[in-house]
Amino acid sequence: MDELLGFIALSGAFFPLILWIPICLLVAVVVSKLSTRGVYRLLIGLAAFAITFTLPLADEIAGRIYLNYLCKTQGGFKVYHTVELPEQYWNKDGEPLFIKYPPHSHSKINGTLDFSVLPEYGLDHRDEIYSSIFNILLFRNWYFNKKTNAILAESKFFTWKGGWLSRTFNSNSGVSCDTSGQPNNRANVLSIFVPMKKAQ
Fold first, then answer.
1. Contact 98, 86 (CB under 8 A)
2. Which residue, 13, 74, 130, 178, is most buried by CB atoms nearer than 10 A?
């Protein structure tokens, strides 16, 4: 809850919540006066305040919970079939000859499959609305065999565009899954394409 309120505060939607507090207090007072006397009146008043205060945040809370669930259960990079490549696709040091890196990059963390070396394989992607109710988008990428259309591996990550309150006051609101499982990652490519096992 603290994390969510921090997100709302940073997104610029905190000011409307301050204006909402007097209404919450009014509801709490009215509800508590309609309830029984004694200590229960205070508890019922506090409960009424909490419920009323969270009403504008309901889709923020539900959206964040659903996003976390999708990221944990469906997100990330998954390999379905590995491809064994003979020694001509590797140099003497065991480095792959089928991975290309961004220009002027000294890092070998990011690297994509060089389709000029392995033209029989492809990479495709699709972006779609996964949940219109919670305003969640799905970004999917997958490597496939062009001859059989078999999917070798795929990555999924989700983006939640925020609840109505944060979207109203900040057009750049939104949270995404961890995107490290993208296909432009050397480790992910090498989890699909592996050295051919030598005959015993």
1. no
2. 13
Query: Is-contact 182 72, C-beta < 8 A?
Result: no
For the segment 132-180, what is each residue's pLDDT rounded down to a tens digit?
A: 888 899 999 999 999 999 999 999 999 988 876 666 666 566 788 876 5
Give Cβ neighbours of residue 118 (< 8 Å, ≥ 6 apart). Answer: 89, 98, 193
pTM of the full predicted structure? 0.68
The residues pairing with 8 across neighbouring beta strands, listed in sequence order, are none
How far apart are alpha carbons 47 and 173 in whole angstroms?
A: 29
Strands 136-145 and 121-131: antiparallel
Task: Write the pLDDT tens digit of every residue in 81-103.
Answer: 999 999 999 998 889 999 988 77
Please state the length of the chain: 200
CA dihedral (84, 89, 92, 95) positive or negative: negative
Say if strands 193-195 and 99-100 run parallel, antiparallel, or are unpaired: unpaired
Q: Name the 3-class secondary structure at 102.
A: coil
CA-closest candidate to residue 160, choices 136, 196, 195, 191 = 136
Cα 82 from Cα 94, distance rounded (Å):
17
